[in-house]
Amino acid sequence: MTNAKHDMVFDALKSCPIVPVITIDNVDDAAKLATAFWDAGISTAEITLRTPNALACITAMKKSVPALCLGAGTILSADDLDHAIAAGSDFIVTPAVSSTLLPALKSCTLPVFPGAATPSEALELYDQGFEHVKFFPAEANGGVKALKSIGSPMPHIKFMPTGGINGDSAPSYLALPNVVAVGGSWMVDKAAIAEQNWEQVEKTAAQARKAIS
Ligand code: 3PG
Predict the structure, then answer these.
(1) Residue 191: enclosing H or E segment and its boundaries?
(2) CATH 3.20.20.70 fits 3-205, yes or no
(3) Which pLDDT belongs to residue 213?
């Protein structure tokens, strides 16, 4: 798929290939959070649909920092997908794919990173039209070694691994030719968010950004 949204998302991932996975519920914090990550040099973020106000947070973040590429994560159903699109998401991330979710993802015009945990799942998704998949949960499924092995027979399938990755392991993932970006919560300072200490949120994210430069 090539369209403006596709270019926006993949240009953003090229400029900064670490994607903070953020679980947030306070809509009043959303704008400040978006600004803190953007000012830290982070160009994308995934907001998980795991809180009652996650969708409203996506809308508020997008409104405050339109250039920040926002993905909706934890998409488990076609309804989740519809709501995420309506909220203004730029891309879609799923931890896994079901027989009902798959057709909805295939008809989505936004970039989609469907979840795969095995080579068979990744190949099936590629055959269904997805060139980029989320490798989840990355560390629990063999991490860098597994992705390196999968890359030998299937170098055309590109991955965004998430799950258990941290600042120490991220560079090894990013060094693989079949990895376009890595996601995770290690660059999200939850304590600072709870304290609404936006300076510290930015500092933690900037450190993570610097560590992969
Ligand atoms: C998730 O689903 O929460 C993401 O994969 C992030 O995982 P992490 O908290 O282990 O980085």
Answers:
(1) helix 190-194
(2) yes
(3) 83
